[in-house]
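Figure 2 data, in text form.
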Amino acid sequence: MSDDKKDGSGKIIFKWWRTHLGNRDTSSAARALAARLNRSQGPLEVLAEPALHALARALDLRDAVRYADRLVRIAQVLAGVREHVPARLAQRLGAGEPPPMSTLRFQRLMRADDDDLATALRRALPMVDRACNVAALGADLYFWGEKTRTAWCFDYFGAPAPNSSQFEKSNQFEEEDA
């Protein structure tokens, strides 16, 4: 996955959030949708929301059934976000002394399987006043995997993540030494 594709998906998800959930202070429809998503007991309740299908169309998903679990996770977690700020969620969870989320709890979050991830993130949002970078969170949820978890670890601890060219150089030196 290229960073451009992730950034593009993040922008689409942010626009969807801003339209359907972000204006809860002035829109009763946004408040009602957020409440339904927060109360949902399972994926079918979320999938029955027309707004979710607007997101699938915006992301140009031709096989929405294949991506249904990702769409549900995005909608459920973003229903808990009240404010868009520049900082990524993992950065906010690890900022400060002590950080809003303990290291042990963050480690459990990183080990959460796909079924428990949305619940864990929804529980983490109040720790940062329900504010984070919506585009980054949406893209991370859409492309969730080892690469994303790794980036979250660096964000949480406030360390710059090494880029792939640094990894290639270190592997090259290891091969030459062998």
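Caption note: The radius of gyration is 17 Å.
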